[in-house]
Amino acid sequence: MRQPTEVIYRPRISEKGSRLATAHNQYLFEVAPDATKLEIRQAITALFGKKVLRVNTMRRAGKSRRSRRGEPGRTNHSKRAIITLAEGQKIELA
Prior knowledge:
Layout: H1 4-7, E1 8-11, H2 15-24, E2 26-31, H3 37-48, E3 52-60, E4 64-66, E5 72-74, E6 78-85
Antiparallel strand pairs: 1-2, 2-6, 3-6, 4-5
């Protein structure tokens, strides 16, 4: 089994993530591209000691960009997970 820090990269702090946290008790994390939902659930439990009810994942394709010199490039692909915690539990990210 991998270490929890190899599965969970960082929390994603954004407007959508803040809205999810306050309204639905859900938190947004960037995770390893090959991480499964079970690994993500175990990593959150190990890192924060919270009970996870549900894990939803999404793959985000990198966007095409151009550099200053006009050369084509691409931003990195990523995988994100939305974690739903049990009622009354909370993660302090800031």
